[in-house]
Amino acid sequence: MNNITILFLSLIFCSCNGQKTRQSYKVKTFDIERFERDVNLRESKTADTRSKDYRWKEITYENQGNIITLGQQGDGNYREEIKKKKSVYRKRSVYYEDTHTLAYEGTYFQDVPVGIEKNYSKKGILVNEKDHDKISRGIGILTVKEMIEMMKKEFSIDITKEDELEFLGYFEKEGKYIYQIICKSHPERKEYASYNYLFDAQTGEFLGKDIFSFEE
After folding, report:
1. Do 41 and 52 meet the contact criterion of CB atoms below 8 Å apart?
2. Which residues are CB-neighbours of 160 under 8 A, at least 6 positions away?
3. What is the pLDDT of residues 39-52, one digit of tens each?
4. Is residue 198 within 8 Å of 180, Cβ to Cβ?
5. The dihedral of CA 30, 32, 33, 39: what is its sign?
């Protein structure tokens, strides 16, 4: 009898904990009120905001050292980007048009996806995730993080800073992957042009540095 009582109480306890966990979980949502309000104020809209088309509109504001951009995409879904001042890293989130709940989140180094990105259902359930660093290693390419450390070590340049990095990416040439890093000019350091740094993306071997110019 005592064993049955203990089992019964345990089931009640687990059930209560499960309900508490489900109730305390909150799906992340888009700040639709601030977005529409700020767009309306900027564009002096007078009609009911629900009848307005906000596609391709966006607002930007600062909060606690972060630059936050809210917008609506052409497909109707909403977008939020958060970046630290003077940093090339940014966190991008996409929200469903109808429920305003989180659909996607990922981190970008300038325009290059890094780390883990996640996709969610409208109910907030994780449905897919992708590890970009793992993908890079899978094809034998150095990660962005490793290239950041290499630039610091070899050239004392911190390419995580907005005033240093112009572009980062890689391309294939003659069966080899090449990392291309373009750094901005700095007249105060007597660097009057943007410089192009090339690395073997698989070994990290430095291939050369030259003045960057757009090809005609």
Report:
1. no
2. 87, 88, 89, 109, 148
3. 888 876 555 544 57
4. yes
5. positive
